Amino acid sequence: MLTVLRLSVAVGLVGTALFTTGAVSRRMSEHARAMRKLEELEQESGERRAS
Fold first, then answer.
1. pLDDT tens digits for 2-26?
2. Dihedral, CA atoms, 8, 11, 17, 21, nearest 10 degrees?
3. What 3-state DSSP class applies to 35?
């Protein structure tokens, strides 16, 4: 019984770690995409001012 409990805790910890890693990776990708978009908008704005 105790062995099953230990295994379930281990599996739960691994699942939590994988979920957290995936969530952070997704948010970082979204952030990078937003930063690229912001840089593009700034470049367009700078080009308009120069014209």
1. 999 999 999 999 999 999 999 999 9
2. -140
3. helix
Please, what is the average pLDDT of the chain? Answer: 94
* The total number of residues written for the chain in this structure: 51
Burial of 40 (0-12, 13-18, 19+ CB in 10 A): exposed
What global pTM score does this model have?
Answer: 0.71
- How far apart are alpha carbons 36 and 3 in whole angstroms? 50
Q: What is the pLDDT of residue 48?
A: 81
Distances (CA, A) of 24 to 6, 14, 40: 27, 15, 24
CA atoms within 13 A on the CB side of 35: 6
